[in-house]
């Protein structure tokens, strides 16, 4: 990227509508293209053109690797990123890890846990365990050659340590971005726009917990009714057959679990 160019412009490959909306709100110019990311040769042409225009782009190989779950697993295995001899078991804690990369530097901006009731952010981990999770994910992105933008990794905590079960370029699925915002005020989409423009970001540390439940329709309460209930920070209505979700905040994981359970009963009833 041309360092003396102050115009905020980004390149989006197969653009995520959430990033397109955020770029429009921020006044950022978007250049985008749709291409099969599994075809490395097809990727090279638009990436070279975008780079020539001074935009931040990823190597074709990095995008191809992160689009292929089998390639990700080979990278993990061949480089011994996960503990040898460990496999994920049904009772192990599953995590999602959101990262933002700029100039090849990777920052893990959020670790979320998959709980029996839904999602909890930040994941209830010790500092040492969280550091270990961040380290294996950023090591994978280094090995893949990823340079710019958001990435979403899946990690399972086994007795032997964290096991990477998947990683792809792009934002985490909803409601993960809403959880980061509710727990610490960090806007994941806005941060993604910044790193795609070649700028560093500083993620806010969570100052509370946020939890979410994803619920299929029909809902017993209207979206507006859910939105005004205590502790609710965000609601996305269901549109059959697509489920909706709500996000609550709390001061502890235990309180978060109780609030989600109570709201679930109000929203969809006791039997779901």
What's the structural blueprint in terms of helices and strands?
Elements lengths: L8 E5 L3 H10 L2 E5 L6 H13 L7 H7 L2 H10 L14 E10 L2 E11 L2 E4 L5 H18 L4 E10 L2 E9 L6 H9 L3 H9 L12 E7 L7 H5 L4 E5 L7 E7 L2 H16 L4
In brief, what are we looking at here?
This is ATP-grasp domain-containing protein. The protein is an alpha+beta fold. It contains 9 helices and 10 strands.
Keywords for this entry:
2 domains, alpha+beta, single chain, two-stranded parallel ribbon, 272 residues, ATP-grasp domain-containing protein, D-amino Acid Aminotransferase, Chain A, domain 1
Model description:
By secondary structure, the protein is of the alpha+beta class. 36% of the residues lie in helices and 27% in strands. Strands 7-6-3-4-5-8-10-9 form an eight-stranded antiparallel beta sheet, with helices on both faces. The protein has a two-stranded parallel sheet with strand order 1-2. It is globular, with a radius of gyration of 19 Å. The protein starts with 8 loop residues before the first strand and ends with a helix. The mean pLDDT is 93.
């Amino acid at each position: 990227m041309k360092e003396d160019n102050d115009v905020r412009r980004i390149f989006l490959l197969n653009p995520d509508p959430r990033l397109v909306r955020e770029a429009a709100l921020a006044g950022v110019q978007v250049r985008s293209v749709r291409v099969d990311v599994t075809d490395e040769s097809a990727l090279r042409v638009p990436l070279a053109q975008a780079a020539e225009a001074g935009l931040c782009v990823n190597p074709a190989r990095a995008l191809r690797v992160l689009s292929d779950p089998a390639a990700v697993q080979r990278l993990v295995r061949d480089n011994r990123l996960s503990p040898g001899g460990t496999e994920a078991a049904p009772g192990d804690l599953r995590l999602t890890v959101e990262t933002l990369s700029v100039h090849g530097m990777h920052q893990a901006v959020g670790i979320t846990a998959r709980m029996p009731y839904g999602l909890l952010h930040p994941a209830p981990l010790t500092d040492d365990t969280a550091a270990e999770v961040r380290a294996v994910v950023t090591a994978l992105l280094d090995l893949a050659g990823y340079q710019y933008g958001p990435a979403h990794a899946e990690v399972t905590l086994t007795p032997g340590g964290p096991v990477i079960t998947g990683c792809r370029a792009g934002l985490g699925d909803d409601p993960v971005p809403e959880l980061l915002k509710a727990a610490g005020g960090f806007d994941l989409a806005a941060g993604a726009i910044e790193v795609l423009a070649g700028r560093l970001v500083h993620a806010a540390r969570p100052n509370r917990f946020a939890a979410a439940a994803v619920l299929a329709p029909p809902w017993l309460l209207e979206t507006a009714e859910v939105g005004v209930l205590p502790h609710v920070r965000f609601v996305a209505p269901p549109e059959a057959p697509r489920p909706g979700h709500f996000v609550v905040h709390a001061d502890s994981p235990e309180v978060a679990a109780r609030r989600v359970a109570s709201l679930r009963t109000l929203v969809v009833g006791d039997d779901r």
